[in-house]
Amino acid sequence: MRYSIGLPSCPYCSVAPKDAWVFTEFVVAVPHPSPLASCHLIVAPRRHVAAFYDLDVQEQRMIWDAIAQLCRRIAKSIAVEGFDAGFVDWPAGGQLDFHAYVHLVPRIPGQRVALPRDAEWADLGPQP
User: Fold this and answer.
1) What is the mean pLDDT of the chain?
2) CA angle, 116 as apex, 27 and 49 as ends, to 5°?
3) Would you state the pLDDT for residue 93?
4) pLDDT, tens digit, for every residue of 2-27?
């Protein structure tokens, strides 16, 4: 099933493939514009939705598969203790064009970051 890109003014709908770490039919992953750590990424569904529960099971699975792939890729390139994933959905203040996304933040040895409060955080643990 192929979905339209979404809103042209949305930063996640308008990503060019050359600017993405992952760009598939279902998922886009891009560097965070103000990273908390090296390799801090935003992982978003390609379909413009305000909540992850608006995604079908296949789309949700593709998000998780992309996150797993990115964790392995990052762990091969820099030293990490693990990863935090922060789910951001449902807009604050009634923002009509909101696009759900996930922060993927590597935990780098000796570096501690304050995770944004606008996300529901999950500890993905250490990676092989």
Assistant:
1) 88
2) 35
3) 63
4) 444 567 678 888 899 999 999 999 99
Q: Evaluate if residue 103 carries a pLDDT over 70.
A: yes
Name residues whose C-beta falls within 8 Å of residue 80's C-beta, 6 or more positions apart in sequence: 74, 106, 107, 108, 109, 126, 127
Boundaries of every domain in the chain = 17-125
Neighbouring residues of 95: CB distance < 8 A, sequence distance ≥ 6: none
Cβ-contact 74, 82 below 8 angstroms: no
Could you tell me which residues come within 8 angstroms of residue 27 by beta carbon, excluding any fewer than 6 positions away? 43, 44, 45, 46, 62, 63, 65, 66
> What is the fold, at CATH topology level, of the domain defined by 17-125?
HIT family, subunit A (3.30.428)
CB 51 within 8 A of CB 9: no
